[in-house]
Amino acid sequence: MPVATSTQLREHVIIWYHEMHIPVDEIVTLSGLSHATVYNILQLYNDHGSLHNPLVLGLLSANPTMFLDEIQDHLAETCNIEVSIATLSRTLQNLAITHKSVAKEALER
Known about the structure:
Blueprint: H1 7-19, H2 24-31, H3 35-48, H4 54-62, H5 68-79, H6 85-94, H7 99-107
């Protein structure tokens, strides 16, 4: 399974491309990422102004105690996006969203 690209590396890709005007081929060499990953990071940033897809983050901000199957159902019903539970789990892990962060938010209410 591929390793998740860190937020710091994603930030570097954006800076290298948009601020330093480094070509994608050179960014691939500097970062060790594939061309597809670099293009995906750039596309996500251009579309949403964010390093991570805001769809799941927005959904969890509104409903922080949703279970993975509820997120899966919501994405299928409202966005016509089919995604596995495993993919959602990895996405949350990559975004550093854990059981502890949900429990903390619940305690703060």
